[in-house]
Amino acid sequence: MARMGSLIEEYMKSGTLLGTEGCLPTALGARVRLSSGKLTVTDGPFTESKEVVGGFAILQADSKEEAVELAKQFLHVAGEGECELRQLYEVAQTAAGS
What we know:
The protein has one domain (2-97). It contains three helices and four strands. The protein has helices at residues 2-14, 64-78, 91-97, and strands spanning 17-22, 30-35, 38-43, 55-59. It has a two-stranded antiparallel ribbon with strand order 1-4. 1% of the residues are buried.
């Protein structure tokens, strides 16, 4: 935990880490799905635990490669697990591209 605290502090000070949160257990959640025009709501807990998000972090990286390196550093501290990297949609990106 001390190593994780140090890594988070380092990322915050450098401006790389913009925010991070953990998620509560799936037993407290629900999934809402729209399929073939029908909405369904399924209360947790969810049996497919390998697909459950345990938390998230919003990072500022200049490239996908930099984001991958940050995820590698995190996993070396956190241990076994998986990180999915996703780029956030920003209106300025689409306006600049049009």
